Amino acid sequence: MINVSKIKKDFPIFSFYPNLVYLDSAATSLKPKVVIDKVSEYYQRYSANIHRGIYQLSEKATQEYEESREIVARFIGGKSSEIVFTKNTTESLNLVAIGLTEKFTKRGDEVLVSIMEHHSNFVPWQVLSKKKGLKLKILDVDANGNLKISQLKRLITRKTKIVSLSYVSNVLGTINPIKEIGDIIKNKNKKIIFVIDGAQAVPHLKLNVKELGIDFLAFSGHKMLGPTGVGVLWGKEEFLNEISPLHYGGGMIEKVEIKNTTFQKTPWRFEGGTPDIANVIGLKEAILYLEKIGMDKIKSHGIELAHIAESRLKEEFGEKIKIFGSKEKMGIVSFNFKDYHPHDVSQILDKEKICIRAGHHCAMPLHHILKTVATCRISFYLYNSKEDVERLIEGLKKVEKILG
Amino acid sequence: MEENLYHDFLLFHWRNPQNYGRLKNANKRAISDNPFCGDVIEMEAEIKDDKIKKIRFSGKGCIISIASASLLTEYVKNKKISELKKLDKDFILKLLNIKLGPTRLKCALLSLDVLKKLIQ
Questions:
Q1: Interchain CB contacts (distance < 8 Å): A and B
Q2: What is the pLDDT of residues A165-189, one digit of tens each?
Q3: Which CATH number is B26's domain given?
């Protein structure tokens, strides 16, 4: 088990709010001091642009930036030449969706996503499918919030070109069996491109892109202790080399003539303009911090806290609380409390310095299936403990007292 | 203004929403929703001689949006349409007697949005 009281000392926000119960890490995580310091070090000591200056400060910045790419690559078991820095998961998924549909699909082809997707892995495919005359197929979830994998074989046809799924649901915490799904897809047709939204998975579990048998992985730095403003797209070189960049301009070119431009190699050709240098460098520090704690420990900590929260909530409130989703949850529990509106629950908890998320969590199609418009969501990370669950329960009792 | 969002006055209107239900013989109807949280408010009114004679609302939502609809429908009765057109955000906040952040402001203003459609 993780020593939470020791870990909390690494996060400056707890020195400002010692009573803070932060249960919204699925939206964004808190940041440890080492990450904040690393970002500020760039601004104070070598705040120059990268890949440009022939002077030491710029070379230092370039070296730190590129080292971050190597550490990200090592963290997910890929090559650094396959790591593209973006703004966030949404931008990564847009880049891959636009690039793949443009290059690998024609009218009448099919793209498969699931009903549990975050809007960022749903809307780009929906919009592009309409634009390009593709058929968007949807994989359902069962009553427990698990993907109906038995449907897969039927849904995948000769026309299926892309399958894009989340590894972990941002609402239900479901951990999807990506390896198994990948095997089914590739057995049907090994040319199908398999894209993974890893926004809720990469912060919590050790994964290896090669072993998973996937072609693309998108995730955000800010959900894994890193700064905001940095996302990652990992892709197999054979595919990355084929797709177009989102942004043309500075940094990503090799040679520009009046009539033609040749671009840099992958991954640099995807990083047009000055990137978010400081925050990319900060992400490296976040990964080193996570590795120091140990990803296996972090994973079991999240699953265990979700399990404790679910059983304690049921124990205290019984029928008054409705919990959504499957048995094993990756640090996320969504629920509704009596007939109270999640916004009211969240607002009253805020008075107790307990931060939870209320709403549809950018997954409206899934909420439609769950037959509710909004839910309360709690999500855990390595700085949360059993005491936080107890504080939440006290908070919910107060909600009940006020709202009756 | 009250610091505490959930003061008794507001909770009273949430528990006992005034003018809740359908209105027979309504000559005006309007509906608005807030997809962000799923709140929906519908208003039905009988408007005669440039005044709201009768008004009722239905729908579902959080405490802020229900209390706001309850208070607003109470306020508008027998008021001139031209006067009601002037109602704004500050008026609603005064009516509710609370301070709100940007997210919850939408809940408070949902009923005003419906009213504006109703008297267009």
A1: 38
A2: 999 999 999 999 999 999 999 999 9
A3: 3.90.1010.10
For A102, other C-beta atoms within 10 Å of its C-beta total 13
Q: Is B62 one of the annotated active-site residues of the chain?
A: no
Q: What is the pLDDT of residue B30?
A: 96
Interface predicted TM-score (ipTM) of this complex, two decimals? 0.85
Biggest CA pair distance of chain B: 41
- Which residues in chain A have Cβ-Cβ distances shorter than 8 Å to B39? 341
What token pair was written down for A82? Answer: 């396959």
Judged by CB atoms closer than 8 Å, whether chains meet at B38 and A360 is answered as: yes
pTM: 0.93
Cβ-Cβ contacts under 8 Å, B38 against chain A: 360, 373-374
Mutate to test the interface with A, among B6, B64, B96 (most CBs of A within 10 A): B6
Is residue A186 classed exposed, middle or buried when 0-12, 13-18 and 19+ CB atoms within 10 A define those classes?
middle
Q: Is the dihedral of CA A63, A65, A68, A69 positive or negative?
A: negative
Amino acid residing at A186: K
Q: For residue A311, what is the enclosing H or E element?
A: helix A295-317
Rounded Cα distance, A151 and B90, in Å? 53
The percent of residues in chain B predicted with pLDDT above 90, rounded, is 79
**Which residues in chain B touch residue A399, judged by CB atoms under 8 angstroms apart?**
none
> Residue B6 and residue A344: Cβ atoms within 8 Å?
yes
Residue A309, C-beta contacts closer than 8 angstroms, at least 6 positions apart: A333, A378, A380, A389, A392
Bridge partners, A114 (sequence order): A139
**Other CB atoms within 10 Å distance of the CB of residue A229:** 19
Which residue of B11, B35, B61 is in closest CB contact with A341? B61
Across the interface, of A359, A402, A404, the residue whose CB is closest to B37 is A359
Q: Do A343 and B6 touch (CB under 8 A)?
A: no
Contact B28, B114 (CB under 8 A): no
User: Is B52:B79 a contact under the CB 8 Å cutoff?
Assistant: yes
Rounded Cα–Cα distance for residues B106 and A56 (Å): 52
Q: Report whether A115 contacts A164 (CB < 8 A).
A: no
Chain A positions touching B62 (Cβ under 8 A) are 341, 343-344
Residue type, A366: L
B116 to chain A, closest Cα gap in Å = 25
Q: Can you give the residue range of the structural domain that contains B98? A: 3-119
User: How crowded is residue B71: how many other Cβ atoms within 10 Å of its Cβ?
Assistant: 22
Distance, CA of A394 to CA of A400 (rounded, Å): 10
Token pair for A233: 């797209």
Q: Encoding tokens for residue A350?
A: 């805020």
Crossing angle of helices B89-96 and B63-76, rounded to 10°: 100
Instruction: Name every residue whose Cβ is closer than 8 Å to that of residue A258 and which is 6 or more positions away in sequence.
Output: none
Total number of domains constituting chain B: 1
